């Protein structure tokens, strides 16, 4: 009854099914791995935001690369803003996807070291973004700020390319090593996204809370791939049973009989 499984059509179908099952299982495992990675990163963000604020120099130092557990930690710093050395970061968007600048202002600590502070987003003065925009002034004199510690930006992590020949006082990426060369000062690794004090006139617009990755979507994809993998052999079995049943029915009916009006050959 099942000798038809040795036909070319069914051998090909069986080989495709045997190939699909492990492929779908592997895709499900990969999606589950992505789910675990994203869940771990989300937990790091949650833990960092929930941690008590600490002085920035407890976590950052010149040449220090901000680690994943340190990212988004709330830090405080006391010093003064150096607006003469202020720069803007090109082609940054706000919550409404409007293109403008981030304002990066050196913050001189009491011990003379420099902390890079991203004060937030401002709109550009025109479509060309070549002129230095009007930047609201920060608090004058000694002040204490609070913000989230962030690692240096890189092209690999952000997808933003460094460009040569930029307009004066404009940069593409926030990088403490490059800023240390420009400022000729000891600059703490990474930078701080300022959250307090808030600007009086709403500008610069402070950066929103860090978003979390959608780990649940990867979990759903993993379950989906494994369901597909389970459905392949079930589908193959159903098709094989139906084919066998149809062949059995044809065998029971026998060959077609000739109709009564079919002319018969004349007897000799």
TrEMBL record:
It comes from Streptomyces tendae. CDD domains: SURF1. It is a multi-pass membrane protein. This is SURF1-like protein. Keywords: Cell membrane, Membrane, Transmembrane, Transmembrane helix. The keyword Cell membrane applies. The chain crosses the membrane at residues 219-240. It comes from the Bacteria. PROSITE patterns: SURF1. InterPro entries: Surf1/Shy1, Surf1/Surf4. Belongs to the SURF1 family. Residues 245-268 are annotated as: Disordered. It is found in: Cell membrane; Membrane. Pfam families: SURF1.
């Amino acid at each position: 009854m099942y000798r038809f499984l040795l036909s070319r059509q069914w051998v090909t179908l069986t080989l495709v099914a045997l190939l699909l099952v492990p492929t779908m299982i592997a895709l499900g495992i990969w999606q589950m791995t992505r789910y675990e990675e994203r869940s771990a990163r989300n937990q790091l963000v949650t833990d960092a935001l929930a941690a008590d604020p600490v002085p920035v120099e407890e976590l950052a130092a010149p040449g220090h690369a901000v680690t994943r557990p340190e990212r988004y930690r709330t830090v405080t710093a006391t010093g003064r803003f150096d607006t003469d050395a202020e720069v803007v970061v090109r082609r940054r968007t706000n919550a409404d996807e409007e293109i403008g600048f981030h304002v990066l202002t050196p913050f001189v600590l009491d011990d003379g070291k420099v902390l890079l502070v991203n004060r937030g987003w401002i709109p550009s003065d025109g479509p060309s973004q070549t002129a230095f925009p009007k930047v609201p002034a920060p608090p004058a004199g000694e002040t204490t700020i609070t913000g989230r510690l962030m690692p240096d930006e890189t092209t690999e992590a952000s997808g933003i390319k460094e460009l040569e020949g930029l307009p004066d006082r404009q940069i593409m990426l926030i990088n403490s090593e490059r800023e240390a060369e420009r400022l000729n000062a000891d600059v703490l690794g990474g930078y701080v996204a300022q959250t307090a004090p808030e600007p009086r006139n709403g500008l610069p617009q402070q950066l929103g809370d860090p978003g979390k990755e959608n780990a649940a979507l990867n979990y759903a994809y993993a379950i989906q791939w494994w369901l597909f993998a389970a459905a392949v052999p079930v589908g193959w079995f159903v098709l094989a049973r139906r084919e066998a049943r149809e062949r059995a029915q044809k065998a029971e009916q026998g060959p077609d009989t000739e109709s009564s009006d079919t002319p018969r050959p004349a007897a000799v």
